[in-house]
Hints:
The chain has 488 residues and is mainly α. It folds into 2 domains: 23-179 and 191-213, no CATH class; 312-484, Up-down Bundle (Methane Monooxygenase Hydroxylase, Chain G, domain 1), CATH 1.20.58. It contains 21 helices and 7 strands. The strands form 3 sheets. The protein has a 3-stranded antiparallel β-sheet with strand order 3-6-5. Strands 1-7 form a two-stranded antiparallel sheet. A two-stranded antiparallel sheet has the order 2-4. The chain binds protoporphyrin IX containing FE (HEM).
Amino acid sequence: MEKPAAWNNDPECGHAVASAYQTHYCTYIRVPRLLTLQQPQSPDELILIVALQWYELWFKVLLADLHAALNEDGSTFEPVKLLRRGVALYKLFALHADLCESIIVRELALKKSLRDANARGVSQQFAQIAALSAQLARRWQKPSAELADAVRDYRAHLDAFRARYAKFLSATLKPSPPAPLSRRKERRQARGNLPSYVEWLRLDELLALQDGIKSALREEGKESQGFWAPEQIGADENMFIVVHQCFEVWFRVLLDCIERAIPLLQRGEIRAATRGVRRVVQIQRLLVQQIQIPATMLPLDFMRFREQRVERGNQVFVTGLSPASGTESYQFREIEIVSGLRDDAVFQKYLQGKDILPIRLLTPRQTERLKQTTLPEAFRAAVQARGVEKLDALFTPANVANPNADLAELADTLLEYDEFFRYWRIAHVTMVEKMIGGKSGTGFLGPEYLMETAGIKIQEKNRVFEERQVRPRFFEDLWRVRTRLGTY
Length: 488
Ligand code: HEM
């Protein structure tokens, strides 16, 4: 095992891999670099930066898709597919707008200091989307019924989103100063030396992280000796990279919320901890819907960049996504660890499984995490500190006064977190099966492993692991209370 070779001086992820130049999730998605692009002054600012970066990442997809669609002559399904993806994204944006309105506008933007510190500006990408989409209606002389419907739907959803987005921006950012674009110095003075929107969100760097770094072409069965950055990536691969990045930025906030909830619980500040977990649930709600976006490409479109084979003479050269895999998302693992899976023997064995996977899953940071208090532990300690012996005693019917109402509310919110985590596992494996059927995954585990983790289909004999990979829920004890309630 060795360190993955560095790409473009990106920070190290801490993984160990079988071969330095194998395609690796952290290199392909540029995760460690991506996570340096939020430098918040406060946890509240982190949420605002992530929310805006998330939009900008998806705007990049919308723009690339619009350009690609407008380049099509309308004789194939391609433009319909791309415009339908736009509609799916605007629907996702509606959910994101809910999240932004409840967490950022109602909870945070009330803090004047946060709003005043923000850069002024507008999204150049969104302005371009609006301008390009105006061309859609005139682009095809005699569009098919599907294409005409897709154009109509696209424009209706864009209009609906535009209004909500403008409202969000005006609630969180100062308006752009009126000076003309070219007068940079004056604009900066007018901003009172605040960074511009582009600088504050590090947009130049953020929007250059979709370069699709894979292992260089190699003979089948041989190790690669370098990385390969394609000259240009297609619209689907652009979406595939961005969707992972959009998960990773919100994973960062999710982890931050859990990390902050633990000491609050330790100090007995139950209502504040509950607010943090409620934010986690709102993020999960978004992530469950977001995981359906990759299925906006057709399975065969995915195969075009998942596996690439080039024949030269008698020799076949290969590259592609394998062995990179979502299993290598260190933030996802960290969420599982801090949410309590740390204590599960099978999960521990999986994390340490040195010989099974072409990667060692534990990074030094995660190894450290294994030693720290988890969310379920902090919850149980808070219940004990209140002198409540059995979890069942936390609950009363709504019309009976409850001396532990704050803990009962927390318990319900934790259960909801567990619920949405399970939805994510199910939504992910269902999307995966739609995309690749029963094929082996690029990380060699495949949908059957994912079904086991979600507990929805257990293999007679697991292809890779000795033990079943069913993941316990984070709060099994709270689920058991549900069975007992009212049966005494
Ligand atoms: C076309 C889209 C996708 C396909 C076909 C796919 C496929 C798979 C497969 C087959 C696995 C099992 C490991 C393996 O054999 O590689 C896996 C694991 C995983 N994927 Fe995906 N995936 C997709 C998109 C995503 C996205 C957008 C995310 C978001 C971060 C994601 C996150 C994960 C995670 C965290 C795991 C590990 C799950 C666990 O160990 O419990 N995947 N994926």
